[in-house]
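Internal QA ticket QA-208
Title: Verify multi-chain structure generation after dependency bump
Assignee: T.L.

Test input:
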Amino acid sequence: MVIDKKRVKQNKTIDKIFKYLFMAMAILSASFIVIIVLFVFSKGISPFLPGYEHGQVDFISFICGSIYRQDEGIYGVGFIIINTLISAFFALILSFPISVLTALFITKIAPKALSVIMQNVTELLASVPSIVYGVFASGVITKMVNNLAASFGVSTYGGSSLLAVVLLLAIMIFPTLTSMSITAINAVDKDLENASLALGATRTQTNFKVVLISAKSGIFAGAILGLGRAFGEATAVAMVAGNKMFGPTFNPFDITRTLTSTMLAGLKETTGLDYDIRFSVGLVLIVVIFLSNYVLNLVKKRVGNNA
Amino acid sequence: MSRKVKDNILNIITYIASAFSVVVLGAIVIYLVSNGLKLIDIHLLTSDYNVATENAAVVETYEYEKPSKHDGIYSEVWGIGFKDIETKHKTKEIAVTYVDEKSPFNHLYSLVAGNNDKEVNIETESIVKNMYYLDDAGNKIFLSKVMMKDASNLVKILDNDAKSIVSINYQSMGGGIRGSLITTLYLILVSLLIALPIGISSAIYLEEYASKSKINSLIKQGIDTLSGVPSIIYGLMGVSVLFPITKLFGATSTSILLGGLTLAIILLPTIISSTKEALLVVPQSLRDGSLSLGATKSQTIFKVVLPSCINGILTGVLLSIGRVIGESAALIYTTSTVINDFPTLLSQGTSLSLMIWSIMSGEQPNFELASAISLIILVIVLIINLSVKFIGKKFTKSFN
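Actual output:
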């Protein structure tokens, strides 16, 4: 056999080229997260720096402010942060028990055929785009909220309200919570279950007292992920939030304003303070998601240790 | 006994809990079908959204026979059919039902300023606003809406009095989604064209090359974090980082190209993870076999490994298409919310989802059209879901 040395060398160079090409692409993919944070940070921080072309904004009154009026140039996001936290947490509280029970139903309780159907329903709900949820929310949920409010003798702004946002978000984070819970429950050691059954516990007791408790760390991770979704959800929320100009909103039938709905409200021009301030709001959103993730992960560690 | 009752109660609670999701999905489908289904037809898919008023002149005249299947009111002299309709705003109008191939109304040229001498076609369902015709004496007569009265009266006037027709002013029905469909296709093409090579290469690097070094775990972490970023943040990134790039191609404002580029980055985590999963399943023996036969590593990757994980890549592509169709928040910032019936790569435009946003955020939200488009999106998503499942099943079979 004759070995063509030139060819071997050529092949080696080609190999090297491809290796570095693949590597470059991987680095490029990973660098986008850095680019996103850097650019949103630098653009978001610019209105607070001295010498900003459209007039410097005071950072403290921006972050603590309780009035947000584009038309008057007053930008305070303090109450918006509170609104965002409220709507997301209540959505989580509503959605959490339902999705954990659904996950338990799918994995342990349901007959095989029903379990497959339920799994498909959950997957389909997960793939429904947020804008479709938005249409549903502004067509159905707002009407429900309006009727509910009317039965209390309260009038709403056509149903757009904090309650509508909470219900919408609860529906939207349900698939995430459920699928994460399913993964967590499936990961529970079979021996634990068998031990519980052998000790005389019933199937149901085992499911609720052994399986769910052992899966709590994974379920909690799902809750963190779902909360992140709820914070970042934009178009659907903007369709039913109503964009209140001051706050915070505690009345469930009153309109509200979240960070994302603020970023989308009245977007017309692509220059000027009103546009740049959206980057600042986006930056606040990133910080809120990051901080809540961090805090909840600390909590999760505690929960996990106690298991 | 009490233990059994307790157990049953707990079990029933899980049944009730899981009924919620079925109810929600059912409610969504029922709402969309009851509101939107009646709008979905070929006209919706093929026509413009914006109403166009056209003032067009007629070129020549013939005589025509009535088409055998026409059931409306028909002018045999002019080869055009009309009917009376009631619009959404409860006004009575006369709409065109049929235009003969040889009818003078099929040979119109536009009189609208800036559109001079352009040939236009009167679409069926267009609403007739007014007309000018010449009578026997050669007088130019204006036929207003009031004078037309209804379809049969219009035909009577046309057949008896009009010697030749000078011009017709009509309005297309509008409300179609053709422009948004084309924009969505553009977005899918642009984003996949960019995201696929980058995403697949990244996955290959991570699975086939990357050793356990600090840099590589950083790369992995970076890509993982990317999937958790809310899409509205991608929109901000798009206008600030990618806009200068589209400027190089001649874009002056936000554009479909910019939206496509932004979407490409949104798609990266999806494509990378589905390719990675597929690469993981390819048996190591395949790679070893190829290498021991003397193939180089890059040859092995391109000719052995990649072909055997084509299913995983296909799954990634399908999921990506679903994501592009459903994406709205990022696109509001990058492609604008102006519904454009004639989109080009460098113009503004709306995808299907964005069109929903656009018609819902106006003064009078159009629930019916929004539901119709949502229904279309939902059907596409369902088809994608089923195909992904189908591919997944075939995929697991092929290596067992």
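Spot checks passed. Chain A has a mean pLDDT of 90.
Status: verified.
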